[in-house]
Amino acid sequence: TLALASSTANDISPAAFDHLLALRGAGQVSYADHLRALRQRITAVYGLERDTGIIFTPSGTDCEFVALAAAQGRAKNGVHNILLGADEVGSGCIHSARGCHFAESTALGHASEAGEPVAGMDPVTLCDVPVRCARGEARGSREIAEVIRAEILRARGGAQHALLHVVHGSKTGLILPRMREVDALRAEFGEDLSLVVDACQARITADAVRDYLARGAIVLLTGSKFMGGPPFSGFALVPATMIETAAPLPHGFARLFRRAEWDPRWPAHERLEHSANPGLAMRIEASIFELERFEALGHAEARRVILAFHRALRTLLLHRTGWRPIVPYRPGNAEEARDHPLEMLTLATLDMSAHPQAATFEDARGLYRSLEARGLRLGQPVKCVPREDGRWSGTLRIGLSMPQICALAELADHALERAMFERIGRFAETLAAPVSP
Fold this sequence. Notes:
With 437 residues, the chain is of the alpha/beta class. The chain has 14 helices and 13 strands.
């Protein structure tokens, strides 16, 4: 399979697989010791303060429960959760952001039902703030901040604690609101507002991670997207001050998490069962292995590969086809385009509605499956371009992963260019003709 699908899922890289085999051959350590070592490596690779909490979760969707746990007990009438762009974050987050189960069973094997509240949590109301206008164009940070401000005031008036989701890398690469608006909201609302950063795509620099944590924000990450690890793993970075002021964990969390996965400083963490999920530890191990390799590569080499990716993308999938890129900033806004981080350039979203097999979102899903059946995998379609008939236009996403960038960086410039054009060229050639199911 040829994959440029880091926005959705990755196959484990040969290097990471060999690393896991070597680790297993060296002898098994306890689950708690393995996670403790991973915490130390995450702290080192991101340059975190040593007292930063790191909580492991079975998926990015489960990360949402960490943010809600931090917001418990901070207001009389519970939590008002302000989510940005529900269509551009994980599908299960609509449930977990309400403090509800999102699947038929939990990672501990307990039966559950999507939409069923997790026992013991404060009441949660949810507001979804659209991140794109009716034309599918990204909304500006100041415009978004005005809507957020109104929601925080509503929460304050209803004796609720506001929990704001900052999106740093949505399914289409959006970053909203920007730091200047985040700082203004923090200054105005103080302790009535908690921040959580959805960086689950992991297209974020260590500097940005530290900037958010310094502002008291929880940062949510997964290992299965840009990091290039296997599907289903997540972790939350929690400022020490949030843990110090946290309410006891809801008793329903005993059905969701194991004790070793949670920070031992959190009140009532002993409610969680003392068991192990070695599969989760190995998936996170593979992801952190890839993160360490990528960070060691250096900015200049990563940039060289990413720019080659964009040259091939523009030449083969944009200029020759007429398919439209869905940009992660307001069209025509030179300042936002210039300031958009390099790591976001590892992902491109294409409006495929001009393709005869991708006019609608449902059509694009069929095209996605047809490509996959032919050994070609892109990122799944995302709902971001509305049609006049009320449906969504077809899209596909194309993205690099950390292990792919590391492998391509070993090539000299000419060989890199050729390899990138060959890979993207296979997708362009296949999409140029009808793709049979």
